[in-house]
Design goal:
The chain has nine helices and nine strands. A hairpin with a 5-residue loop joins strand 8 (254-260) and strand 9 (266-273). 38% of the residues lie in helices and 20% in strands. It has a seven-stranded mixed β-sheet with strand order 5-4-3-6-7-9-8, sandwiched between helices. Strands 1-2 form a two-stranded antiparallel ribbon. It folds into two domains: 3-65; 88-273, Rossmann fold, CATH 3.40.50.150. Helix 1 packs antiparallel against helix 2 (22-32), helix 2 packs antiparallel against helix 3 (49-65) and helix 8 (212-221) packs parallel to helix 9 (240-250). The longest helix has 17 residues, at 49-65. By secondary structure, it is of the alpha/beta class.
Length: 277
């Protein structure tokens, strides 16, 4: 059996179960230890029986238990790099790649950055590798930080990690050019999909309106932002107006911009502190 045969066998099994055939591509990429766009280069190679059996077992486990394939494989790819995952961290979403892409393409080099709620470390690690930013990343979850540290080692990124909530582990004299976060912003009554059921609640839910952590970030940011420093936040599009009002309340001299994701939704807020002369 070739890898091509194995791939299409997986596709057939998934389609018969009314599941997305994309799962076969993710799983084969994992078996080959390659990115998804590289698997076709190996289609004519013969697959070992043990690997074929493992591939099929993963497909059937996914169908039977609906566990996210990224958790089953223990990894995913983000901005072209491999990242390890487990139940302590969220699965990266395309919206977060939009946030990172914005910073990489539009922001200057040599910034000092604070990432609040780093999770698996995808934002901080990617910014360090792509822009060589000086990154300090925090998270309240010790389990998440273990994953982030492993990912920094895997990707040879130079990141400082601290365990703590919001600014609790930031020294009073530390100042940052950029504060970035993909914080918990869901509400308990938010309509969720099956994937979210497997993800850590602490990384998902942000209080009654989903804004508790976001307000915590904005409220005290002024103390730690450099002159003309910037905050970049990912959030639910429905929260955009409230976040804009919140920013003007807590950072008096600021400009606020609402930026759209690839679907045209106001998913990212950029708050720029205006230096008083």
């Amino acid at each position: 059996m070739t890898y091509k045969d194995l791939y299409y066998l997986g596709v057939d099994i998934l389609e018969d179960a009314l599941e997305e055939p994309e799962i076969a591509k993710l799983t084969l990429a994992y078996i080959l230890d390659k990115q998804q766009n590289e698997i076709y280069l190996y289609f004519d190679d013969e697959v070992e029986e043990e690997k074929a059996r493992y591939f099929i077992n993963i497909i059937y486990h996914f169908i039977d238990y609906s566990e996210p394939i990224q958790y089953l494989l223990g990894q995913t790819y983000f901005y072209g790099r491999k990242f390890l995952l487990n139940e302590n961290v969220l699965i990266p979403r395309p919206e977060t790649e939009t946030l990172v892409d914005l910073i990489i393409k539009k922001f200057p080099d040599q910034l000092k950055v604070l990432e609040i709620g780093t999770g698996s470390g995808i934002i901080g690690i990617t910014l360090n590798k792509e822009k060589n930013y000086d990154i300090l990343a925090t998270d309240i979850s010790a389990g998440a930080l273990e994953v982030a540290i492993a990912n920094a080692e895997l990707n040879e990124a130079n990141i400082e990690f601290r365990e703590g909530s919001l600014y609790s582990k930031i020294k009073p004299d530390e100042v940052f050019d950029l504060i970035v976060s993909n914080p918990p912003y869901l509400t308990k009554n938010y309509l969720i999909d099956q994937v979210v059921e497997f993800e850590p609640e602490i990384a998902l839910y942000g209080g009654a309106e989903g804004l508790d952590i976001i307000e915590g970030i904005i409220k005290d940011a002024d103390k730690f932002l450099s002159p003309n420093g910037i905050i970049v936040l990912e959030h639910n599009p429905e929260q955009a107006l409230k976040i804009m009002i919140m920013a003007k309340k807590h950072i008096k001299n600021s400009h606020v911009y609402l930026l759209k994701d690839l679907a045209g939704r106001k998913r990212i807020t950029l708050i720029r502190k205006v230096n008083e002369k």
